[in-house]
Design brief:
The chain is of the alpha+beta class and about 140 residues long. Helix content is about 20%, strand content about 40%. The chain starts with a strand and ends in a 9-residue tail after the last helix.
């Protein structure tokens, strides 16, 4: 696990989904032109929803002895599930701008997970979303 202090901007495929009441964005980033070493970028979009909430949800839903990498895999699995299955999907964009704010957490996987080598989490914004789309969604789990 590595904290990060710089922000990141990108443009590409973005999935927006609700998870336990919080609207979350999932985008991808490439570390170089070869598009090797893909990075999953995941962050809350709901106002007041901060990135540590993702890790709290993962901790609450994983086994008590889960490592940071296992928690990162859980977060990425939820994002991938929404992208593939449409679970709780709010919006899907093929070419949309996004911005990851400074701060957050980065995890490198020992082995590729969902075709990604890294998970970077932080507070995220996605161009073109309405306040209604990012508003808190009702949930049964209050973790």
């Amino acid at each position: 696990m590595t904290p990060h202090t710089e922000g990141l901007c990108g443009r590409g495929r973005v999935t927006v989904f609700a998870m336990f009441g919080v609207v979350v964005g999932y985008a991808t980033h490439h570390l170089d032109r070869r598009q090797i070493g893909d990075v999953a970028v995941v962050g809350p979009l709901t106002p007041g929803g901060e990135w540590p909430r993702l890790w709290q949800l993962a901790r609450n839903c994983a086994r008590t002895t889960a490592t940071e990498e296992e928690l990162a895999r859980w977060i990425l699995t939820q994002a991938t599930r929404s992208f593939i299955c449409g679970s709780d999907r709010v919006a899907q964009f093929q070419d949309q701008g996004w911005k990851l704010e400074p701060g957050g957490k980065r995890v490198s996987f020992d082995a590729t997970c969902a075709n990604r080598d890294h998970l970077w989490t932080g507070n995220l914004t996605v161009e073109g979303l309405t306040p209604k789309q990012v508003a808190q969604h009702p949930t049964r789990y209050q973790g």
